[in-house]
Amino acid sequence: MRKLIKYIEILKEWNKKINLVSFKENKIWKEVVEESKKFIPYAKGRVIDIGTGAGIPGIVVKILKEDIEMYLCESRRKKAFFLEEVVKELKLKDVVVLNRNFLELKEYEKFFDRVFSRGLGIDKVKKAKYLLVYNGKIVVYKKGDFTPSSWKRDGDLLIWEKL
After folding, report:
1. Which domain covers residue 57, as residue numbers?
2. Cα 1 to chain center, whole Å?
3. Do 142 and 25 contact (CB within 8 A), yes or no?
4. CATH number of the domain where residue 64 is located
5. How many domains does the chain have?
6. Under a CB-based contact definition with an 8 Å cutoff, are residues 48 and 114 in contact?
7. Along the chain (163 residues), what's the average pLDDT of each consecutive run of 10 residues?
8. Residue 83 exposure: Cα atoms within 13 Å on the Cβ side
9. Rounded to the nearest 5°, which phi and psi values hold at 78?
10. 9-13 contacts at long range (C-beta below 8 A, 24 or more positions apart)
């Protein structure tokens, strides 16, 4: 719990400088921590959080499920630098920050058990299929009722499995 509180403190402080999230300060805990917890049942093995921004959901999932390897993929340098600082300050192990576009990760083809995303749309996230091992899953935060064909819905999450 201490690491989660520290993460939120760091996020609030950095958000004043580089605009990491648009949530109101009184809603940060709910939007960052509570919403990220929904990904935990799907966290397994090697996980990549694409378009992670401020580390949502990747940082929270890693803090609460330490036995996974977490890769945080963020193409914007300022946000990637923030992620590197959070990993260092919280002393998170088995976390890699990739300051790249997820479409350029050819050396990670068929490497991940899970692809997570909160900020990217379904059409964009589908392009990450090449990163998954057989039986790997893409898990995307998407409120609403619409469920694309070949996807399953679990509350606010959409899940696609590579078969």
Report:
1. 2-161
2. 19
3. no
4. 3.40.50.150
5. 1
6. yes
7. 91 82 70 91 98 94 97 96 96 98 97 95 93 97 90 95 89
8. 30
9. -60, -45
10. 10/85, 10/86, 10/89, 11/54, 11/55, 11/86
